[in-house]
Design brief:
alpha+beta; Arc Repressor Mutant, subunit A
C-alpha cells in the first residue's frame, strides 16, 4: 500500500476510533484521570499543559500528576475496554514500518486530524519509543541511532563542506555494512535530519551546524550567509533588509541597523565593495581594488593592448560601475597609456 493510501486509511481510522466526547465517556478512567490526560495531551485542542501547571490546578505536586498520567497510560495499555488505543498503535506501526522502522514526529503527525490522540496512543505502547523527535521501533536500539549520527558527523567534519543528502546517506550506509549492520537508507536519512548538530543546507545538502555560513551566530557571518545564499552582489541597504528578514529574532534583539551592517562590510576582509554601496563575497573571485587597479589587472592579464570596449567588458565582471568611470580612469591614469585608436595598455 502506497503512503498516500495509508495516510487516508489512518485518518479514517482516527475519525472512527477517536472522538473527544467518546474519550470523556470511557469507563475505565475516573473523571479526574480523564481531565488530567486531556490537559496533558490537549485532547480538546486546547494548549497542552505541563505536569507542574496541572498540579497547580489540582493543588498537588507535579510528581503526583506524573504518577497519575503513568497509571492512566498503563490502564489504557492493558485493559481490553480500551482496545481502541491498541488498534491505533497498529496503524501507526504500519506507517513507521513503511519508513524503515522510524519516522520523524512531524512526518507522522502532519495532515492528521487528531495528532494529539496519536501521541497519547504511542505513549500507551512499549513497542515504540521517542528519540530526537523521532518515533522509533524498539527493535532499533538507541546505540545504533547514535552510531549513524556519529558516522554522519565524522564524514562531514572530515570533508569540511556541505554534501548532497543522498551521498552522505550512501557513505553512512557503506560504513554500517562494514560493521555488518543493515538499516533502511530512508531511515538513515531521517536519523541524520533529526540530529541538531547537522543542518539541512540549501534543501539538498547536509552540513554541520557550527559552520558559520550554515548557522551564522554574529552579524558578519549572517551577512556572509545572505551573500553566499544568493551569490549575487547586493547594496548594503538590501543586505540589511535580508538579514532582518532571515534572522528576525536577532534583528529585534540586537537592532541591526543599516549603519551597523555597513560598518561590518567595510571592516571585514570577506566582503568587497564593487560599486556604489554594492558588496560581494571575496570568495567568489571579487577583489578589493580601485577601478584603476582593476583596469591595470585586466591589461596585465591580457598581456597585450586592448580595445576600450573589451576593457569595459572585463571590468564589469568584477565591478559594478558605469562606463564613464572606467573611461575617466583610462584617460587620467599615469600608469596606463593609449597606444592606438581607443586602445590602451600599461606603461
Amino acid at each position: 500500500m502506497i503512503l498516500s493510501q495509508l495516510n487516508k486509511l489512518l485518518k479514517n481510522n482516527y475519525k472512527k476510533m477517536y472522538d473527544y466526547e467518546d474519550f470523556m465517556n470511557i469507563g475505565v478512567l475516573s473523571g479526574r484521570e480523564k481531565d488530567i490526560l486531556n490537559k496533558r495531551y490537549g485532547l480538546d485542542n486546547n494548549p497542552k499543559q505541563t505536569f507542574q501547571k496541572i498540579g497547580e490546578g489540582y493543588g498537588t505536586s507535579r510528581q503526583r500528576i506524573e504518577q497519575i498520567v503513568k497509571r492512566c497510560l498503563s490502564t489504557l495499555r492493558t485493559r481490553e475496554e480500551y482496545a481502541i488505543t491498541n488498534q491505533c498503535v497498529v496503524n501507526i506501526s504500519k506507517k513507521i514500518n513503511l519508513n524503515g522502522g522510524l519516522i520523524s514526529c512531524s512526518e507522522l503527525l502532519k495532515n492528521d486530524a487528531l495528532p494529539r490522540f496519536i501521541e497519547l496512543s504511542i505513549d500507551t505502547t512499549n513497542s515504540i519509543y521517542k528519540y530526537n523527535n523521532m518515533y522509533v521501533f524498539c527493535d532499533i536500539p538507541k546505540e545504533r541511532i547514535e552510531i549513524i549520527i556519529n558516522s554522519a558527523y565524522s564524514i562531514l567534519k572530515k570533508i569540511g563542506v556541505p554534501i548532497r543528502k543522498d551521498k552522505l546517506v550512501s557513505k553512512v550506509d557503506t560504513q554500517l555494512k562494514k560493521r555488518k549492520t543493515v538499516i533502511n537508507q530512508k531511515a538513515i536519512k531521517t536519523i541524520i535530519e533529526s540530529e541538531k548538530s547537522i543542518f539541512v543546507y540549501k534543501k539538498e545538502y547536509f552540513a554541520l551546524g557550527d559552520w558559520s555560513f550554515v548557522n551564522p551566530k554574529n552579524l558578519e557571518s549572517k551577512i556572509e550567509f545572505i551573500l553566499n545564499e544568493g551569490r549575487d552582489p547586493m547594496h548594503f541597504s538590501q543586505i540589511t533588509k535580508e538579514v532582518a528578514d532571515k534572522f528576525p529574532s536577532s534583528s529585534i534583539i540586537k537592532n541591526y541597523s543599516v549603519s551597523s551592517v555597513h560598518n561590518v562590510l567595510i571592516k571585514s576582509d570577506k566582503f568587497v565593495l564593487i560599486g556604489r554601496g554594492i558588496y560581494a563575497l571575496q570568495a567568489f573571485g571579487y577583489r578589493k581594488e580601485t577601478i584603476e587597479q582593476t583596469i591595470m589587472r585586466v591589461l596585465k592579464e591580457s598581456g597585450e593592448p586592448m580595445k576600450i570596449q573589451d576593457i569595459i567588458s572585463e571590468v564589469f565582471k568584477t565591478r559594478m560601475v558605469n562606463e564613464e568611470s572606467i573611461k575617466c580612469n583610462l584617460q587620467t591614469s599615469k600608469k596606463i597609456v593609449r597606444v592606438g585608436r581607443r586602445t590602451y595598455f600599461l606603461k
